[in-house]
Design brief:
single chain, 322 residues, alpha/beta, Carbamate kinase, eight-stranded mixed β-sheet, four-stranded mixed β-sheet, binds adenosine-5'-diphosphate, binds phosphoric acid mono(formamide)ester, Carb_kinase, carbamate kinase activity, transferase, kinase
Length: 322
């Protein structure tokens, strides 16, 4: 499956949590539709590593436990965010494995795809713990949001890119992928690896017990987690797939302008001008800048999951390069 001559390009492909639908059925449909495109990228001589978001899913899992716990506190525990993040990696990784494995088996009679439950170390003193920005769970109307705030006075809820209101949680910067050696090992053995789902489960070192980590209540941005994964795996390209075809300036306004090709300097100017939704498009552009600057020749593409093949071929999406 790899190129006959020369080293294949390594591509990290990130699938946005909001682009994966809201139910198991929708998610299965979305990942099944994406699987042939992902395999085509391999046929073109690339190695792929997959990561995915979990914003809607991690919120859904935590809410489900919270309401079951309220109804039956003796038997059903409330569930903390890191455990919910781990469950979301299993839930989404499972569907991705099924979809990619089936497409791979049809073509190549092999099933070399595996998800790695991945922890990512964060700084316990990261300012993000004081300033929650990561939207999770379902979109709400203003009335629904107000009702949730009465039920959960400790929640923070914000408006998310004109799509409704969502709970936001802390989103610290990813520092170190704990399982990176397992990921590299699977890649060396020609597996398609699904890793750092939901940005990775955020953990901090537990210095009271050498070599151990403990989960923290946060959700890492998967664009930043995917960027770290791409650097750790020496990837050449980072592809961030979401629900819109392009990054835009004046997004949602009558003079919206879709961007096709921008330098890191232009991207940085647009970030400074506040052109991108916080916790939605801004982290993607910031991840793109970081990746494009990390080594000469590296490129980030941001485009839609539905047009993944076109984006990879340069016919859709926004390219960020040095
Ligand atoms: N300037 C912008 N250009 C394009 N999309 C934007 C912009 N600002 C905010 N958005 C919103 O960001 C969304 C992508 O972020 P998000 O839904 O968090 O991604 P994900 O698919 O990774 O879950 C788009 O669907 C769009 O609604
Ligand atoms: N963890 C994360 O970034 O999820 P989304 O892609 O759903 O925002």
């Amino acid at each position: 499956m790899s190129k006959a001559f020369g080293k294949p390009n390594r591509v990290v492909i990130a699938l946005g949590g909001n682009a994966l639908g809201n139910t198991p059925e929708e998610q299965i449909e979305k990942v099944r539709a994406a699987a042939p495109t992902l395999l085509k990228v391999i046929e073109q001589g690339n190695e792929i590593i997959i990561t995915h978001g979990n914003g809607p899913q991690v919120g859904m899992i935590q809410n489900a436990f919270a309401s079951a716990h309220k109804d039956n506190p003796e038997k059903i525990p409330a569930m903390d965010l890191p455990e919910c993040g781990a469950m979301s990696q299993g839930y989404i990784g499972y569907h991705l494995q099924q979809a990619i494995g089936a497409a791979m088996h049809k073509e190549y009679k092999r099933w070399h795809v595996a998800s790695v439950v991945t922890q990512i170390e964060v700084d316990p003193d990261d300012d993000a713990f004081k300033n929650p920005t990561k939207p999770i769970g379902a979109f709400m109307t203003k009335e629904e949001a107000d009702a949730e705030l009465v039920k959960h006075p400790d929640w923070n809820i914000v408006e998310d890119s004109g799509r409704g209101y969502r709970r936001v949680v802390a989103s610290p910067q990813p520092k170190k992928i704990v399982e990176y050696e397992s990921i590299l090992n699977l890649l060396d053995n020609e597996f398609i690896v699904i890793a750092c789902g939901g940005g990775g489960i955020p953990v901090v070192r537990d210095y009271s017990d050498k070599g151990t980590y403990k989960g923290v209540a946060a959700v890492i941005d998967k664009d930043m987690g995917g960027e770290l994964l791409a650097e750790d795996c020496s990837a050449d390209m980072l592809v961030l797939l979401t629900a819109v075809d392009h990054v835009a300036i004046n997004f949602g306004k009558p003079d919206q302008q879709d961007l096709e090709d921008i330098t890191v300097e232009q991207a940085r100017e647009y970030v400074e001008a506040g052109q991108f939704g916080k916790g939605s498009m801004e982290p993607k552009v910031k991840a793109g800048i970081k990746f494009a600057e990390s080594r000469p020749g590296r490129v980030c593409i941001i485009g839609s999951l539905d047009k993944a093949a076109e984006a990879m071929a340069g016919l859709s999406g926004t390219r960020i390069h040095a």
